[in-house]
């Protein structure tokens, strides 16, 4: 049983005990209410195995044989088919060679056979604010603020923050370095305090994703980037079964950036810090690097 299956089982058991409604369970699982009812019936009959798909570990009944795939790639490798796109190639495979396959299947075959290069999806210019998630823990935004928290009177401090998308609950940590170690400490503290969320929403910083480095004048720079191994944080999220969602534009991550740099949300505003004469050696009131803070309304507590 995978981590995703365990998560589905937890949701179904909550629905079975009437801790949540079937409508809430359907939204959390991404299925219809009728499917939730079927899963609950199966849970009574087969127990926990009800969440495991019947074809798990088996090939699809509609899968095309690898022999046919190799044959199609060999045919399309001929000089006469040079320059054919997936749509036209699928049409000729069906008409002339009796190989019936959808254009998307042929596209996958051609990419695997190095006969076609996938195009990058274009990002739309118009950015519409997405609606917030409806439930606590569905999505947590994770970002770091480089704001001058000590107003030039001390060393640089960074605020690493995790903000629940549905409730704006803030969990943050002041650190001296925005490093993998400090981010992992905050992740561990968050999971211990609040439990495991369904997904984290971050930018594409190197802490979360390894990017292939290429020079602009390097041959083949316009080709598809190679898949890179995950970072330490990426491996940790994968082992926890937490989905990582990357923001593809500055507008997409604007809310998290705003929350981590918005001083009025915190009790320690600039005036109070000046009155307290906070310094790296005598940080009073809890503004200490390495300490975690949670905020559910207005106050920022240590």
Report on the structure:
This protein has about 300 residues and is an alpha/beta fold. The chain has three domains: about 50 residues; about 45 residues; about 140 residues, Ribonuclease H-like superfamily/Ribonuclease H (Nucleotidyltransferase, domain 5, 2-Layer Sandwich), CATH 3.30.420. About 35% of the residues lie in helices and about 10% in strands. It is built from ten helices and six strands; from the N terminus they run H-H-H-H-H-H-E-E-E-H-E-H-E-H-H-E. The chain has a six-stranded mixed β-sheet. Strand 4, helix 8 and strand 5 form a beta-alpha-beta unit. Helix 1 packs antiparallel against helix 2, helix 2 crosses helix 3 and helix 5 packs across helix 6.
Shape: extended
CATH superfamily of the largest domain: Ribonuclease H-like superfamily/Ribonuclease H
Number of discrete domains: 3
**CATH topology name of the largest domain:** Nucleotidyltransferase, domain 5
> Treating each run of at least 4 consecutive H or I residues as one helix, how many helices?
10
CATH class of the largest domain: Alpha Beta
Q: Assign the structural class, choosing from mainly alpha, mainly beta, alpha/beta, alpha+beta, or little secondary structure.
A: alpha/beta
Strands in their spatial order, largest beta sheet: 5-4-1-2-3-6
Mean pLDDT: 78
The CATH architecture term of the largest domain is: 2-Layer Sandwich
Strand content: 5-15%
Question: Total number of β-strand segments?
Answer: 6
- Biggest sheet record: 6 strands, mixed
Uncertain runs: 261-272, 278-291, 296-302
Radius of gyration: 26 Å
Compressed to H and E, one letter per element, the order equals HHHHHHEEEHEHEHHE
Helix content: 25-40%
Distance between the termini: 39 Å
- Oligomerization: single chain
């Amino acid at each position: 049983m995978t981590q995703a299956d365990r998560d589905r089982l937890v949701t179904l058991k909550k629905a079975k005990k009437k801790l949540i409604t079937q409508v809430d369970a359907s939204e959390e699982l991404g299925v219809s209410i009728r499917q939730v009812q079927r899963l609950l019936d199966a849970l009574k009959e087969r127990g926990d195995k009800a969440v495991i798909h019947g074809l798990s570990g088996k090939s699809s009944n509609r899968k095309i044989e690898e022999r046919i795939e190799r044959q199609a790639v060999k045919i399309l490798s001929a000089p006469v088919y040079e320059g054919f796109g997936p749509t036209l190639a699928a049409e000729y495979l069906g008409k002339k060679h009796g190989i019936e396959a959808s254009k998307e299947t042929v596209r996958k075959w051609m990419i695997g056979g190095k006969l076609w290069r996938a195009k990058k999806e274009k990002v739309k210019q118009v950015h519409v604010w997405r609606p917030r998630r409806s439930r606590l823990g569905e999505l947590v935004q994770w970002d770091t603020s480089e704001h001058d928290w000590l107003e030039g009177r001390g060393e640089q401090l960074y605020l690493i923050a995790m903000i629940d998308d549905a409730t704006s609950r803030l969990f943050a940590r002041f650190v001296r370095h925005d490093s993998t170690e400090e981010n992992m400490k905050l992740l561990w503290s968050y999971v211990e305090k609040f439990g495991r969320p369904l997904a984290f929403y971050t930018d594409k910083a190197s802490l979360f994703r390894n990017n292939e480095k290429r020079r602009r004048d390097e041959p083949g720079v316009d080709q598809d980037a190679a898949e890179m191994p995950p970072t330490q944080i990426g491996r940790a999220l994968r082992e926890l079964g937490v989905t990582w969602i990357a923001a593809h534009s500055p507008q997409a991550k604007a809310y998290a950036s705003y929350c981590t740099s918005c001083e009025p949300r915190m009790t320690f505003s600039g005036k109070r810090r000046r009155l307290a004469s906070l310094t790296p050696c005598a940080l009073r009131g809890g503004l200490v690097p390495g300490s975690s803070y949670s905020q559910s309304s207005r106050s920022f507590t240590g």
